[in-house]
Amino acid sequence: MLIQENLSIQEKLKILTDAAKYDVACTSSGVKRKGKAGSIGNTSEAGICHSFAADGRCISLLKILFTNQCIYDCKYCVNRCSNDVVRTAFTPDEVCKLTIEFYRRNYIEGLFLSSGILYNANHTMELIYETLYKLRNQWNFNGYIHVKAIPGTDAELVERTGFLADRMSINLELPTAQGLKDLAPGKTRDKILAPMRQIQQGISVSSHLLGYDRGYKKPYSTERAGFAGGAALIRPELAEAPGAALDRKISAKVTGQGESQGLAGTDQGVPGGDSHNDMYTTQPDARPGCIKSRLVLPASQYKKSAFVPAGQSTQMIVGATPENDYQMMSVTQALYQNFGLKRVFYSAYIPVNEDSCLPSLPGGPPLLREHRLYQADWLLRFYGFRAEELLSEDRPNFNVFLDPKCDWALRHLEGFPVEVNLAPYDELLRIPGMGVKSASRIVAARRSGRLGFEDLKKMGVVLKRARYFITCSGRMMEGARLDQDYITNCLVGDEQRARWDIEHRDSFRQLSLFDDMHMEMPVTRDDHYAAAAGHF
């Protein structure tokens, strides 16, 4: 495969933005609209996507691949080396120019940069590092940058890039090692997990040295139990030694100082010089499944600037391999707890290649399943649920008719109804129809008096779901009763519309007040007469 070097930057942009659309950390706008006289603003479909900040702001990003050339032959990927597609690559200066020019025109607020693998992992990561270095230091770009780390890259390259990016991510691709072996034989779990562990380690050290953390824990400290199942799915060799990959020690390698000083809050236990020996390093475990990773740069670098301040994320493909929802959520749970990820993204498998190893999808991409996984992921991150509460080996897949929270509540009616004027915050979070904000408002408001159903509605509680599971001053809402069949029938009816919208989301669009759907009627003789007479 030859890289097409005679293409214009606009032609490269068209190819490499289209190739980047399967990274689902953001959603594409897909709209092209030129500015015109008498109007304000315009839009571009080339690589403009939207992400959302913690405060709810929508942020536009330039989303591109550095190159769609790749040395791997992943069966599910449109950029696999065996595909006959036009190959091209940006230069670091071209990416910088695009980012700055888009930013100056107020198209974007940041950059999302991913890449195939050009020649080898280190060469590709060097180009990405050069791009970010020029953006930050030559162009003085201070906007948001999300960059993909290339599996198999040297630790120092990953580390140096982490000081320039706001967020980094390494795609896990498939939930189990066996699935990766079947569909992406060139990739291994070690290549993916080593930089993931390294980024986690760097974030922890940076947070500690810059004073961002409270109650600092060693990056590899894992006192939590119950994650052996998810860890074993990520790395099957852990099945014989549960938790083996979870026990890591980070210590200061300082001449003349014992390991016992560690990171106990004093500068003596933290490397502070620029010498080669002053570094953080992981001590490999003799047990199976250890992930060898270390931080190469001296601690003085971590005292100057934040390392990946927006955290790291990953992505898994849904439906390309036969894993069930319980396995996927177990892996997700293990990733959150053991690698400190900010977010796990799910991408419904879309058939772009023909291969006997890939599944046939007569019903199309599993969009509803992807939606259920995102709902459950939210419950893990913000609502205090665990994977084994939502699913089990006997019941390994989510209910297609009910969202995971409603389904869980219906299977645990012995804990309902809940009195909203007395229940603690964590118990309120488990009530269908209540979210983090509404539960916080309830806890704050009931200090001033007892709450009724009208009060709950004003606080944002979705009563059409919550009404079956709560009481106010000992009374249920009128018309509600605690009966599993009755509640199920009521909730399923409300879910049908949402389910149809998910499965047919490309077949309709939202109407606006001024939308004529481009259905122009022919001008009649009466129309001409009315216009001439001034009746319009």
TrEMBL record:
Annotated region described as Disordered, given as residue ranges? 255-286
Q: Alphabetically list the UniProt keywords.
A: Iron, Iron-sulfur, Metal-binding, S-adenosyl-L-methionine
Q: Keyword Nucleotide-binding, does the record have it?
A: no
| A Pfam family reported for this protein in Swiss-Prot or TrEMBL | Fer4_12
What is the recorded name of this protein? DNA modification/repair radical SAM protein
